[in-house]
């Protein structure tokens, strides 16, 4: 898609291809100038295509800013793309003119028979060997150069895509030493699908999405299936509250959760639910959970199961505007039967999490009873049990889409870039959240948030998108206060208010 977006911009802005390359290089240069020291040597490795052209232009700009630069050209000039050769010639012309700044420049045509110069640990590598669209593994001398970069211990910054990484298919069959291990990847819109999968974290590092002014008209008209979820996407979803509203205005959520030893899941999901804005929250718990819920969370109402220690009887659900089931319920046979009865009587979408997913995984024929528009919120292992094993994240991504389409449901696959798939084939990758949220109870909190939004009349899609974004943002705020290690699920709930306020522009 990046090539099509480039072409559209060139025609409709209009702008020359070489000038668009100059714009991309300028944005990368701006980032580099802000993040590295003038005293560090910059080693720019340029391939033969347009990614190499970006590298030559970046090197020229770094030199103009007073940096010491060495450019390593992998191909001979006659093998370069037109725009790459133009930027190579621009550099040669400056070098040959003897301009003062270019005394800091070394041009090296890497020779397959020669030794690649060593890279010092305190230096910076700019990787501009390959860009997007790579279809085969790096080999030969180029593979040796990539391995040389990876063993240097220098700071590595890749331009657009780490060289050797496939954007639209798995790189798992590619040996790790054949892909550049970037500390930062300066990429251009649209974001690459591969960047959202954990299998590529070693290569991508910290990705920075830079705006090079590609035509918005192209993206508006394009048939896009993958989306990156940002604040500007979810802020318009928020509903404005009328000053005469009351608790009956904002719906009534039912949370079916908890069993002996797992009542904390019920407390967390219920607290998060009410903090997400519904007027009323009822928690269905076994008898042993009554005193726990009443003392830990007095704002919630209780619907008490006749069983002492687990969920065994489906409640009357006619009064509720949203239903969530699963956190801490266990997988007792009575619990499974109660879930089946719930499915048979439900007329509104249900949110399934945790043990509810595990029960469905053991009884896949029940999926046919799931109300359309329901939401599944698995972590990767629950996904595997429910939907099946996959050989890589690209395959798993396709399986997630297929499941959403087959059962006309929404799947919220939790992770570093939580992915929400829809019945019509779209996928939204969340951009909030951090590793400190990898802690017990974080998923229970997300269940409560989404259920609370559903109760207020948000659609299933709106509840998923707003829910995962708000959840991750609250975690980010909590991380700034507590750090990664000390962050717990309750901290996410505590910061939900600030998360909502940030979308209103008040925090």
Task: Report on this structure.
The chain is an alpha/beta fold and 507 residues long. It is built from 18 helices and 17 strands. The chain has a ten-stranded mixed beta sheet with strand order 8-17-16-15-14-13-12-9-10-11.
* Discrete helix count: 18
Helical content, roughly?
A: 25-40%
Arithmetic mean pLDDT: 91
How can the largest sheet be summarized? 10 strands, mixed
- Side by side, the strands of the main sheet go 8-17-16-15-14-13-12-9-10-11
End-to-end gap: 36 Å
The total strand number stands at: 17
Which segments are poorly predicted (pLDDT under 50) over 5 or more consecutive residues? 97-102
Question: Which structural category fits the helices and strands?
Answer: alpha/beta
Rg value: 27 Å
Estimate what percentage of residues fall within beta strands: 5-15%
Based on Cα principal axes, name the global outline.
Answer: elongated
């Amino acid at each position: 898609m990046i090539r099509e977006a480039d072409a559209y911009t060139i025609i409709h802005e209009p702008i020359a291809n070489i000038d668009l390359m100059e714009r991309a290089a300028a944005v990368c240069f701006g980032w580099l100038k802000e993040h590295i020291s003038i005293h560090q040597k910059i080693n720019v490795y340029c391939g033969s295509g347009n990614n190499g052209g970006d590298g030559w232009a970046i090197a020229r700009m770094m030199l103009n800013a007073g940096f010491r630069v060495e450019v390593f050209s992998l191909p001979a000039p006659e093998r370069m793309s037109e725009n790459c050769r133009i930027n190579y010639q621009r550099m040669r012309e400056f070098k040959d003119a003897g301009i003062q700044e270019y005394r800091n420049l070394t041009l090296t045509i890497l020779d397959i028979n020669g030794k690649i110069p060593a890279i010092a640990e305190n230096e910076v590598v700019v990787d501009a060997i390959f860009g997007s669209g790579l279809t085969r593994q790096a080999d030969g001398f180029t593979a040796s150069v990539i391995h040389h970069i990876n063993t240097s211990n220098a700071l590595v910054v890749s331009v657009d895509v780490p060289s050797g990484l496939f954007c639209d298919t798995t790189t798992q069959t590619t040996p790790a030493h054949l892909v550049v291990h970037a500390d930062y990847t300066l990429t251009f819109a649209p974001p690459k699908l591969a960047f959202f999968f954990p299998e590529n974290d070693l290569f991508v590092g910290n990705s920075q999405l830079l705006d090079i002014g590609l035509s918005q008209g192209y993206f508006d008209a394009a048939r896009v299936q993958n989306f990156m979820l940002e604040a500007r996407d979810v802020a318009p979803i928020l509903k404005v509250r009328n000053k005469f509203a009351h608790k009956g205005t904002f719906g009534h959520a039912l949370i079916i959760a908890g069993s002996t030893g797992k009542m904390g899941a019920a407390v967390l999901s219920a607290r998060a639910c009410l903090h997400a804005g519904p007027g009323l929250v009822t928690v269905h718990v076994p008898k042993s959970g009554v005193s726990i819920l009443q003392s830990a969370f007095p704002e919630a109402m209780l619907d008490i199961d006749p069983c002492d220690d687990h969920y065994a009887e489906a409640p009357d659900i006619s009064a509720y505007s949203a239903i969530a089931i699963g956190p801490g319920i266990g997988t007792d046979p009575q619990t499974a039967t109660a879930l089946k009865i719930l499915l048979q009587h439900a007329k509104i979408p249900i949110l399934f999490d945790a043990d509810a997913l595990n029960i469905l995984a053991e009884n896949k024929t029940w999926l046919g009873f799931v109300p359309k528009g329901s939401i599944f919120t698995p972590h990767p292992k629950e996904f595997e049990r429910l939907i099946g094993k996959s050989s890589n994240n690209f395959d798993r991504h396709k399986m997630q889409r297929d499941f959403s389409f087959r059962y006309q449901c929404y799947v919220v696959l939790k992770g570093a870039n939580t992915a929400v798939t829809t019945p019509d084939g779209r996928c939204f990758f969340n951009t909030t959240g951090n590793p400190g949220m990898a802690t017990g109870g974080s998923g229970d909190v997300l269940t409560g948030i989404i259920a609370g939004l559903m109760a207020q009349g948000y659609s299933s899609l709106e509840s998923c998108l707003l829910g995962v974004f708000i959840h991750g943002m609250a975690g980010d705020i909590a991380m700034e206060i507590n750090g990664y290690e000390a962050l717990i699920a309750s901290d996410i709930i505590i910061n939900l208010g600030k998360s909502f306020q940030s979308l209103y522009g008040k925090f």
